[in-house]
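Can't paste images in this forum, so I'm doing it all in text. The chain is below; anyone willing to post the predicted structure tokens underneath?
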Amino acid sequence: MNEKQKNQIEEKINNEVEETTKKITKYKELSQPIAPENSIGRVSRMDAINNKSVVEAALREAQEKLLKLLEIQKKVTLKDFGLCTKCKNEIPFGRLIFRPESQLCVHCAK
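Text version of the structure:
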């Protein structure tokens, strides 16, 4: 991996951290408890509870992604960045741009 590619990946990671942080804030707002005194119908309340569960799952996923991004952000400057942690082969540049938190090559990730 050349220096230009490494810089592109670092920029992508920084953008992903920023976007994921914004998503987490939004999901936290959307997953607030549903007050029982709100006069919405029974079906609407069930729908709201279901939607809240979906948002909470998205929140957990975004939080996990942020942790992985922050971890990989620290490793970008290391000389072995971009190498699969399992087989030590180079992770394709396209995979790192698409999913910068990847630490495994496509073969090992299966």
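The chain has four helices and no strands. Residues 17 and 66 are 6 Å apart (CA to CA).
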